[in-house]
Each structure stands twice: as structure tokens, then as C-alpha cells.
Design a protein that fits this description.
The protein is built from 2 helices and no strands. By secondary structure, it is an all-alpha fold. It has a domain of 112 residues: Helix Hairpins (Orthogonal Bundle). The two termini are 31 Å apart.
């Protein structure tokens, strides 16, 4: 009886499977990072919307005051304040754009991680297919060897019986 067939690349297959599991963890982390960056983007856009609304309200207030004849000092103060709000709005726009860049970076990192996961899974799949083919081939070889041994044993038995008679 032959010893059980052991695939010589089992350790390599195990290592590659562990790498796939590690990469799955990396992909999950990248997905969490993307979700966090998208959440930050939503908050930045909301802050920008609030500043924009405040700017629009103050602009409307200034126009109303202009129509109702206010003093030039009040108008000057309103213009200065409106300029400050406009600068704040520009700063919020920059924050939104910077956060959009962070979201894009997180998306690219996730795509890279997914590509790496796909590649590692393909390596494991190739090794599993190779293992299946190799085991099938080894079983055929083992059957062939057993067949030869049985033929030899049959011949010896036949010759042993033939010589006795």
C-alpha cells in the first residue's frame, strides 16, 4: 500500500491564502478610510453651504439697507463685513476642494488594494487548480504503479503454481 499523496506546495498555498486574508483586511481598512473621508467631505460641504447662506443673507440685508437709505458709515461697515464673509467662503471652498482630493486619494488607494487582492486571489486559484491537477496525476500514477505491482504479483503466483505442478 502506498503512503498518502502529499502536495509538495501545500505550504506555499497556505502562505498565499494567508496573504489573501491579510489583503482582505487591508481592503476593509481602505473602505473604512474612504467612508471616513466621504463623511468629512459631507461635513465640509455643509459648512460651506452655511457660510454661503450667511453671505447671501448679508448681501440681501445690505441691498435692503441701501434701498431704505442708511448712512454711509453703516454701508461701509456692511461692505467690510461682507468682504470678511466672502473670504471665509473662499476658505471653505478650499477646504471642500482639499477634502475632495482626499476622497479621490482614498478611492485610488482602495482601487489599488482591490487590484492587489484580485491578483493574490488569482495566485491562490492557480495553485489550487495546479494542486487538483497534480493530485489527479499522482493518483493515476499510483494506480499505474499498483497495477504493475499486481501484475507482477499475479505473474509470480502463476509461475509459483506452474512450477509446483
Amino acid at each position: 500500500m502506498q503512503p498518502p499523496i502529499v502536495y509538495p506546495l501545500d505550504k506555499v498555498l497556505e502562505i498565499k491564502e494567508n496573504r489573501v486574508k491579510e489583503q482582505e483586511k487591508v481592503v476593509a481598512q481602505k473602505q473604512r478610510e474612504l467612508a471616513l473621508e466621504e463623511e468629512k467631505l459631507v461635513k465640509a460641504e455643509e459648512a460651506r453651504r452655511q457660510v454661503q447662506k450667511h453671505y447671501d443673507d448679508k448681501l440681501a440685508q445690505m441691498r435692503y439697507k441701501m434701498d431704505t437709505e442708511t448712512t454711509s458709515i453703516e454701508m461701509q461697515q456692511m461692505r467690510v463685513y461682507l468682504k470678511l464673509v466672502r473670504e471665509r467662503l473662499i476658505a471653505e471652498d478650499k477646504k471642500v476642494e482639499a477634502q475632495k482630493a482626499q476622497v479621490e486619494l482614498a478611492k485610488k488607494n482602495l482601487e489599488v488594494a482591490l487590484g492587489e487582492l484580485r491578483r493574490k486571489r488569482q495566485e491562490v486559484d492557480k495553485l489550487q487548480v495546479h494542486k487538483k491537477d497534480w493530485l489527479r496525476e499522482m493518483e493515476r500514477e499510483q494506480e499505474r504503479v499498483e497495477g504493475i505491482e499486481q501484475d507482477e504479483m499475479g505473474s509470480l503466483i502463476f509461475l509459483g503454481r506452474h512450477h509446483r505442478s
